[in-house]
Amino acid sequence: MEERMKQKEIKRKEILDAGGIARSLSRLALEIFERQQGQKDFAFIGIQRRGFPLAKRIAQKLKEMEKLNIEVGALDINLYRDDFSTVGTAPVLRGTNVPFTVEEKTIILVDDVLFTGRTIRAALEAIVDIGRPKKVELAVFVDRGHRELPIQADYVGLSLNTRREDHVELYLTETDGKDSLILESGK
């Protein structure tokens, strides 16, 4: 009985549904367009697993809105992570596919949720192994705070106040069969 009392109830709350995600992505795409206006040499690299479909969606929105054809690549950062001991011993590799040169381009790195900054640190190392971009900017769908490294997003779809122990999960149709942003608290 005492054991059950110690366990906290996990509360799941949907922050955004599919419509909210689509609207946030449109705003994010518009912000990127406004800041990149006149720039010809920029491309998206999405961090596997959910950053890549987000990057493709943003590129598609820019094509629909402004007739821009932006190159999109996928980046697997699992071999660059510094937390293998906490996420398992054998990394699951999803593959890097950057079918363009990063040299002298502005690369907009895309990820789903920005938390401690460690994923982005690993992604920056992986990008530098591919080549030397002119500049790297960061676009995230959700910035939930609680950085452990001095990393900040240039483009943010949604800033979300969370507790460190909360869990934020972005579900996408391409990877999960539906679009939804969920906040789990009480863990």
N-to-C order of helices and strands = HEHEHEHEHEEEHE
What order do the strands of the largest sheet run in, or round the barrel if closed?
3-2-4-5-6
CATH class: Alpha Beta
Structurally, the number of domains stands at 1
Rg to the nearest angstrom? 17 Å
Task: Estimate what percentage of residues fall within beta strands.
Answer: 25-35%
Class by SSE composition: alpha/beta
Count every beta strand, where a strand is a DSSP E run of 2 or more residues.
8
CATH topology: Rossmann fold
Q: Which oligomeric state applies?
A: single chain
Provide the low-confidence segments as ranges: none
Instruction: Give the overall form.
Output: globular
Largest sheet: 5 strands, parallel
Helical proportion, percent range: 25-40%
End-to-end distance: 19 Å
Output mean pLDDT: 91
CATH architecture: 3-Layer(aba) Sandwich
3D architecture notes:
The structure is a single chain. The protein has one domain (18-165): Rossmann fold (3-Layer(aba) Sandwich), CATH 3.40.50.2020. It has a five-stranded parallel beta sheet, sandwiched between helices. A three-stranded antiparallel beta sheet has the order 1-8-7. It starts with a helix and ends with a strand. With 187 residues, the protein is an alpha/beta fold. The mean pLDDT is 91. α2 (18-36) crosses α3. It is built from six helices and eight strands. Helices cover 33% and strands 27% of the residues. It has helices at residues 2-6, 18-36, 51-66, 84-87, 118-130, 173-176, and strands spanning 11-16, 42-47, 72-75, 106-114, 135-143, 155-159, 167-171, 180-185. α3 (51-66) links the parallel β2 (42-47) and β3.
